[in-house]
Design brief:
By secondary structure, this protein is mainly alpha-helical. The protein is built from three helices and no strands. It is elongated and about 45 Å long.
Length: 78
């Protein structure tokens, strides 16, 4: 299961990409950012379970819920 150690790196890159996309003026890019953030939440949870980082799991769940809120606000604002 040592390969799960490497999951944190794609998770980090996807998170950075998502943050860049969220800052866009274009609604489609922002929506892509929300999707990337959701994917990064899944990656972080997978790594956190492996690393027994339970606080990080809770953080990712909270961040996912906030991403849903942003996604809905962005979608309704179209």
């Amino acid at each position: 299961m040592a390969y799960l150690d490497w999951v944190q790196w794609p998770a980090m890159f996807v998170t950075v990409l998502a943050a860049w996309l969220i800052g866009s003026q274009q609604p489609k890019r922002r929506m892509s950012g929300f999707i990337c953030f959701s994917f990064s939440n899944v990656l972080w949870v997978a790594w956190s379970v492996y690393a027994h980082a339970y606080a990080l799991i809770l953080l990712q769940i909270c961040l996912f819920l906030m991403n849903l809120r942003g996604f809905n606000k962005n979608y309704k604002g179209r």
